[in-house]
């Protein structure tokens, strides 16, 4: 197959797993989809391909807009989408970042094995569910003051360290050491701050979760050893973002940009791509506010990790230090950051790299990778569904040239939440997971479990296989759920 036609969009095969939508009409650049034919069949079932084409209309797009193997329809810009947009003569788009700014994942290691938790799964999942706030609305590990919120927005995980919720090694093993210094709390509305004040250290709802996992497979022994991973080891995965604060930041700036830059909006095929021109006041304001929300999300995950350490220490009657509950890494997957990349003709440019449902995947040698991993590549964490497991990867050698240093962020949805609730019954999903896979799930409601049933998601094994084959994210290890709590 050399071409692929889907709902009026024609893709040309560049090579294995690389498909291109040629530049035409108002497109400023071509678009590329990184997928196997099976994944492409699933990606083409919604508006992902049209949204990807639309994204190339944004001013300043360089090389091409890209859809990762887990791509699916999003708000204006596809989930699984990446665009490197010139920071001097381009723009920045809140819709290409998403509402849950710095939604991301972190993995914490332990020295426990699967045998240590067998028979104690229910005790562990009940204790975690009781200790870690989840679901819609307020309630967090820390009930913040106005001063706390401003400090978190400005200093990120440095605040958590000062307040005793983190140790220095946590910052050393987090993307950007857990703080964006471009953050400007003054650019975050009071309404956003008020929404975040009571949600510091909470999972929220939807696809967010805390999952205890066991390592089932190791693919690259040398890299796994550097990451501190081995077969049968127990690890903990935390997936959440900036809660209501990040959502409000996106809402505020979409409205302001639509009003202030209506001329640019009129030239775009979808108003949900609303963007502020680089160098404009709103572009600077949004970038400062977004970076502040990024800091908030890192602290949010840190406080959940802090509480998880306390739970494990209580359940296993020892200290978390003795359990060696150390942070492997924390990665963001709804973000736009200024980064320098090679673009056309080998020229280096500063770009706003928009990653919406995509993970940074820098290879060995890139200075942004923490010293602990700089000679092997950045850890990447790819969560799957409750019944399919997750992956740890490392940044691949081809990522900088192919994807602005990016790869997938998860399995990617196959069906909407509404359809999922029609197809699945939460109690049945919980029973099947426990009886067939020995996975213990606890959630605020059965509807949440139905929305997140394993059948709702693409095949994470195939998503990761494509990433590995393209050299943008190399497989290191695979994990499988032991117990899971959801909002």
From TrEMBL:
The active site is at residue 409. InterPro entries: RtcB, RtcB-like_sf. Residues 179-202 are annotated as: Disordered. Mn(2+) 2 binds at residues 239, 333. Essential for tRNA splicing and maturation. Acts by directly joining spliced tRNA halves to mature-sized tRNAs. Joins RNA with 2',3'-cyclic-phosphate or 3'-phosphate ends to RNA with 5'-hydroxy ends. Mn(2+) 1 binds at residues 100, 208. It catalyses: a 3'-end 2',3'-cyclophospho-ribonucleotide-RNA + a 5'-end dephospho-ribonucleoside-RNA + GTP + H2O = a ribonucleotidyl-ribonucleotide-RNA + GMP + diphosphate + H(+); a 3'-end 3'-phospho-ribonucleotide-RNA + a 5'-end dephospho-ribonucleoside-RNA + GTP = a ribonucleotidyl-ribonucleotide-RNA + GMP + diphosphate. It holds the Pfam family RtcB. It is an enzyme of class 6 (ligase). It comes from Halosimplex aquaticum. This is tRNA-splicing ligase RtcB. One of its GO terms (molecular function) is metal ion binding. It comes from the Archaea. Its EC number is 6.5.1.-.
């Amino acid at each position: 197959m050399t071409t692929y036609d889907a709902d009026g969009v024609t893709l040309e095969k560049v090579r294995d797993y690389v498909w291109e939508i040629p530049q035409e009409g108002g497109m400023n650049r071509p678009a590329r989809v990184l997928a196997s034919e099976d994944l492409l069949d699933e990606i083409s079932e919604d508006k992902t391909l049209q949204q990807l084409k639309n994204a190339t209309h944004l001013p300043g797009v360089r090389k091409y807009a890209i859809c990762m193997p887990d791509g699916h329809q999003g708000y204006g810009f596809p989930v699984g989408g990446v665009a490197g947009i010139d920071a001097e003569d381009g723009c920045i788009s809140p819709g290409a970042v998403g509402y849950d700014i710095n939604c991301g994942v972190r993995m914490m290691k332990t020295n426990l094995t699967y045998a240590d938790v067998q028979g104690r799964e229910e005790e562990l999942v009940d204790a975690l569910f009781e200790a870690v706030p989840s679901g819609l609305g307020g309630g967090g590990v820390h009930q913040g003051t106005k001063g706390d919120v401003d400090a978190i927005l400005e200093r990120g995980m440095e605040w958590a360290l000062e307040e005793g919720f983190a140790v220095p090694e946590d910052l050393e093993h987090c993307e950007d050491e857990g703080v964006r210094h471009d953050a400007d709390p003054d650019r975050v509305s009071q309404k956003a701050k008020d929404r975040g004040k009571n949600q510091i250290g909470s999972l929220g709802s939807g696809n967010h979760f805390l999952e205890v996992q066991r390592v089932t497979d190791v693919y690259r022994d040398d890299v796994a050893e550097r990451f501190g991973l081995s077969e049968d080891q127990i690890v903990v995965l935390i997936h959440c973002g900036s809660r209501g604060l990040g959502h409000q930041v996106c809402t505020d700036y979409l409205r302001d940009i639509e009003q202030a830059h209506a001329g640019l909006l009129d030239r775009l095929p979808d108003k949900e791509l609303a963007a502020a021109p680089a160098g404009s006041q709103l572009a600077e304001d949004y970038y400062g506010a977004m970076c502040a929300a990024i800091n908030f999300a890192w602290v949010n995950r840190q406080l959940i990790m802090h509480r998880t350490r306390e739970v494990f220490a209580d359940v296993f009657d020892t200290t978390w230090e003795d359990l060696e509950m150390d942070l492997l890494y924390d990665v963001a997957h709804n973000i736009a950051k200024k980064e320098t990349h090679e673009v056309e003709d080998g020229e280096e440019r500063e770009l706003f790299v928009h990653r919406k449902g995509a993970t940074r995947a820098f290879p060995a040698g890139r200075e942004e990778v923490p010293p602990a991993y700089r000679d092997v590549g950045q850890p990447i964490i790819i969560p799957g569904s409750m019944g399919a497991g997750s992956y740890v990867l490392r940044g691949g050698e081809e990522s900088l040239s192919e994807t602005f240093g990016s790869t997938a962020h998860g399995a990617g949805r196959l069906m909407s939440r509404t359809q999922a609730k029609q197809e699945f019954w939460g109690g049945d999903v919980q029973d099947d997971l426990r009886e067939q896979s020995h996975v213990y799930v606890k959630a605020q409601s059965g509807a949440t479990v139905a929305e997140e049933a394993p059948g709702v998601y693409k095949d994470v094994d195939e998503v990761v296989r494509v990433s590995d084959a393209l050299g943008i994210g190399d497989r290191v290890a695979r994990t499988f759920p032991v117990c899971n709590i959801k909002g």
